[in-house]
Every structure is written in C-alpha cells, then in structure tokens.
Amino acid sequence: MRNHLHIIAHRGASAYCVDNSIESISKAVNMGSKIIEIDVRLTKDLKLVLAHDDFYVIDDIEKNIKNSLLSELGNIVELNDILTNTHEYIIFYLDIKCDNDEIIIAEKINNILKNFPNRLFYIASFSDTFVSLFKSIYTNYKLGIIFQIFNKNIYNILKHKIKFVVSQITQTKEFERFLEIKNKTKYVYTINNLSLIDNYYSYIDGIVTDYPDIMSLK
Predict the structure, then answer these.
(1) What is the tally of structural domains in the chain?
(2) In angstroms, how far is CA 60 from the centroid of its own chain?
(3) Beta strand 6-10 pairing with 35-42
C-alpha cells in the first residue's frame, strides 16, 4: 500500500539541512526526490525568494522579507535561480506565501514559470483568495489549496479550480471530510513517522515529509 504514495520533500531535505536552501534541495534530489515543496515569498523589490517565515536571519538579525530588498537578504535563494540550476524532471510544489500581495505575486510567479515550459509545477497556498485569483488568470498549472484544518465550505468554492488538496492530519470531523474527497489528489503534511498514516493509506495519494528517504527509515 505504501508504494503508491507520492513522497514530497518538505522544503527540501529539511531534516538534514537548513530548509529552503540550495543544500536542502540538492540533498533531496540526491535522495531521489521527484517532488520538492518550497515556500515562496516576495521581497520589497518584487523578487521571488524561498522562505517559510516572513523574516530571514542575517548575522543573528531578523530581516522582514516583504520590507527588505533582495540585496539586504544575504544568501537567500531566488526562485529563478533554483529552477535554472535543477533538472527539468524535478517537480517543484510551490507553497505561496502571499502577505496580501496576491495579484503581484501571481503575476511574478507566472513570469518566471513560463520560462520553463517543459517543467511541471504544483502551485498551492493557504490563501483561497490567491488560488481563486491565480486560476482565473493562469490556467496551465496544477493548482491546489492547503488547509491546516480542512474547510469544506472553502473546498466547495474552489473544487472546480483545483487538482489537489493538502491537509494536516487532525483528530477532527473536518479531517474525516477531507479523506472523503473524491477525484482530487490528496496529500497530508508533515509526516515524519509513517505510523501516523497507518489508517489512511487507502485514502491519500502522498505525504509531505522532512525525510525524503522516509521509506528507507521504516
């Protein structure tokens, strides 16, 4: 049953390296990862960079990414650079952090991704506003919505616009409703111990994990 799962490297091989870094992504690739999740944010000068949090630490000082120029963010990784320097067969799943800049970031993402016409990208966000907007403008990407706790109302609004749904595992009725979804790819996060999904193999299509080698760890 486990062999059907898509194994998605969470921010690269983030259990082993600094997340969203070149090293983390390279290690995930070397471990055989075909799908790598990365977090994407916008800088003050409208550059797309890889970062989960809204700040980046330089010399023990926290810099707010949205209010900082790229040149002020040290060795932070640009999205364009990581796409240019990885093989086309690697699928990047972009977790879009919007900070209320949905329109700008949608345009910037498309402007970069259209330069890689032979690559497959998964694009998702916790922001249903972004997902709806992005789908209304750009239609040639595999689009998804991410939930901390599954929201059936939001899902019903977006279900004709998305291909996949991502949810955290929770002991709630909402998660049970997530598992009941039909005709969509379903991923759960962040799974660092396969025992967490012992009861869900027949319901889900993949996991997001800090350990891309998780199958060899079982």
Answers:
(1) 1
(2) 26
(3) parallel
